[in-house]
Prior knowledge:
Blueprint: H1 5-26, E1 32-38, H2 45-58, E2 63-68, H3 75-79, H4 87-92, H5 97-100, E3 102-105, E4 108-112, H6 116-119, H7 125-135, H8 138-141, E5 144-151, H9 155-163, E6 166-171, H10 175-187, E7 197-205, H11 208-226, E8 231-237, H12 240-247, H13 252-255, H14 260-278, H15 289-303
Parallel strand pairs: 1-5, 1-6, 2-4, 2-5, 6-7, 7-8
Antiparallel strand pairs: 3-4
Helix pairs in contact: 1-14, 2-14, 7-15, 9-15, 10-11
Amino acid sequence: MNLAPSDQAGDLRRLVEAQRQEVRQHHGSGLRTVAILSGKGGVGKSNLALALTCALADGGNRVVLLDADLGMANIDLLCGISSRFNLSHVVEGSRRLDEVVVPLEENVEILPGGSGLKDLADLDDTELTGVIDSLELLEDRADIVVLDTGAGIHKGVLAFALAADTTILVTTPEPTSVRDAYGVLKSLEGAPPKGKELLLVVNMANSDGEAREVAGRILTASHQFLGRSPVYLGHVLRDDSVGRAVRLRRTFYRLFPATPAGLCVRRLAEELLARWGVRRGLSYPPGGLKAFFLRLSRGFFMEK
């Protein structure tokens, strides 16, 4: 039986508080980074990133969504915001971080990325340290940074996957999407570095059974041929309300929270919070923002 929205929000808040206590007790304070990527475009990755950001914020987390798609950034179109500035202005020193971040709703802010993320690779050590120090202001205003990355297996995209604390790979049941998702796993050699978690979400599924069948094929193939496989986090059902929300430049999770897709995103958020230390003794301590940007800049540098 589905819980009422108010009950679900209460459950999320309790999960968030338990997670925070776990982090404070065992790992100290730290911001968590979550990269969302896909093997190909058209799988609903950006819509999912925006919806998941809002769902995580419902529990009391302060969440910043960083548009990290270096080629086709579109978060502003999906949520109806506009910004004159992006992260490149912070990197070049012409704007402060608080001038670039755009508030979306309570506990949710958008950080347009632009070319500023890749520009990190062009900085010397002193310049990079200065930029990262300025970005550390996010530690004071966010608990989680969600990164909506580009699609494909470009090294720039993979750099986000390897730098983030948690990576979520999005696929759909379409054969080309499944093939390309496996291509991402192969490029990552089956798993992120030790201490990172790699999760799989099946989007636009027609049923729970179809989603599990698709996930099973990917997990079996990656385990057999790559030696490691991601963890199946869950699915989002195909839902016409998603397209309606896009046309209205709003997230479907806010406009239509009780639709199949909205309820699925709620469950994904709950499972993420649970994985971060609440259930089953699992614990994935956040690495913090400075560690993330250092790893990211090295990943881009390796691309050259």
